[in-house]
Amino acid sequence: MPVGLILMAVSLAATAYGAYQTHQAGKTAQEAADRQARLDEQANEEAVRRLEKQQAETEATAKARAQAAGFEGESFAPALQEMEKEHKREASWERRAGKSRTDLTRWQGGQARKQATSKAWGMLAQGAGQASGVNW
Q1: Closest CA to 30 of 101, 100, 112, 99
Q2: Is the Cβ–Cβ distance between 51 and 131 less than 8 Å?
Q3: Which CA distances in Å does 53 have to 8, 58, 83?
Q4: What pLDDT, in 10s, does the model give residues 35-64?
């Protein structure tokens, strides 16, 4: 077997292995992003749960203070309803913001995988071109 053919085979094998490693790195990046997104979802749900608990305590305290000060239900009801509406808006916003963050993390992981796959194909094409003497 001619030496040139052996060198070409070794070069192609090294290129293919490098392309494979690049592709695997992209898969690993996407998997890591998915894991991070799941952790972020859990953290966000816990943050929303704590926020809602704090809001319920704030509302209960406001009711108790109003009653202790002698306010009747009718006179205090509009203020309490506005507080509850604002608390619901805050919790809803926090949920949406958390979902947006996790969606972005997942998208970035997918982009990393696509970029690595494209790079791997480029490496293979370049290696094949060099082995065949064609400059792609």
Answers
A1: 112
A2: no
A3: 67, 9, 14
A4: 999 999 999 999 999 999 999 999 999 989
Burial class (CB in 10 A: 0-12, 13-18, 19+), 52: middle
From the list 11, 23, 3, the residue with the least C-alpha distance to 126 is 11
CA angle 99, 101, 104 (to 5 degrees): 105
- Residue 12: pLDDT band by 50, 70, 90 thresholds? confident
Question: pTM for the whole thing?
Answer: 0.74
89/51 Cα distance (integer angstroms): 12
Tokens at 57, concatenated:
């305590």
Residue found by looking up tokens 């859990």 in the block: 42
- Taken as a whole, the chain contains a residue count of 136
Confidence of residue 133 (pLDDT cuts 50, 70, 90): low
Q: Which one, of 89, 78, 88, 82, lies nearest residue 56 by Cα?
A: 88
CA distance 92 to 86: 10
> H helices of the chain, where?
3-68, 73-132
DSSP state of 136: -
